[in-house]
Amino acid sequence: MMSQKHAIVMNEKDNTATAVEAIDAGTAVVVSVAGQDLAVAVKHKIPFGHKFALRAIEPGGPVIKYGETIGYATKPIAGGEHVHVHNLESGRGRGDK
Length: 97
Description:
mainly beta; Archaeosine Trna-guanine Transglycosylase, Chain: A, domain 4; four-stranded antiparallel beta sheet; three-stranded antiparallel beta sheet
């Protein structure tokens, strides 16, 4: 069963969605992106407030939320995969890049 209440996409440019409630692994989530429904099978348990990828993100590729790049993938991220510190490096406030 698919549900639209599990997650939201902040901006049509985003390649991530944010869980508005905890999502169990294997859940099929439907989110609205630019007025179109997109179904994503969540691969891992996603805690409330955390992100998951809407589509594949290559290593070094931008992770986009709010229509802005919030960091870069440190390894391949598959669609439906949890996006967090284990596979995301922030690009903000570092001063070393």
